[in-house]
Write a structure and sequence with these properties.
single chain, 171 residues, alpha/beta, six-stranded mixed β-sheet, 5 helices, 42% helix
């Protein structure tokens, strides 16, 4: 269940970050593309932070280390340093949606309703400890030999960094 787009959390920068930045601003907003609640185990709904990229995005490919690896490291730091704040914030969002009566109590397709998902998440939800990478593309993108080589290399790098392998979706 998609709960948010363009997720951003403001935080105070460390002195080292300020020193290394061009702007020297004391605050920064950590951002990631999507937040979703994985409800595959209704007893334990899990909030996942997801970065989305198109299959042809140049940040996925490199002869050295692809730029997306550094992004994932930053997202991992974001989750590690803001775990409690992220979780509490989205549990509050779920409670607010329930209190406002915005969510449906039934589902047309027979799946758990948004209300059931939000109720469970507000009470017992957790935050997945690793950022996820979602790669979107056409069938041709995923069958393209050059892209295939880059994606296989990316899988190897994710394995080495102990991240979950990227999720590939055809759009």
């Amino acid at each position: 269940l998609l709960i948010d787009l363009e997720v951003a959390f403001s935080r105070r920068r460390t002195p080292k970050e300020i020193e290394q930045s061009k702007t020297k601003r004391p605050f920064v907003a950590d951002r990631i593309d999507l937040a979703e609640i994985d409800f595959s185990n209704p007893a334990k709904p899990v909030l996942k932070m997801i970065e989305a990229k198109r299959a042809r995005d140049s940040r996925l490919a490199s002869r050295g280390e692809p730029e997306v690896i550094a992004q994932m490291v930053n997202y991992q730091n974001f989750i590690d340093t803001s775990y409690e704040d992220i979780l509490k914030s989205y549990q509050r969002v779920a409670r607010n949606m329930l209190e406002l009566g915005i969510v449906e109590n039934r589902s047309a397709d027979g799946c758990d309703s948004v209300k059931v998902v939000f109720e469970a998440f507000a009470e017992q939800g957790t935050l997945y400890e690793k950022p996820q990478l979602l790669i979107l593309g056409t069938e041709a993108d995923f069958k393209n030999r050059t892209n295939d080589e880059h994606l296989n290399r990316l899988n190897d790098l994710f394995d080495m960094e102990n991240y979950d392998r990227p999720i590939h979706r055809i759009v």
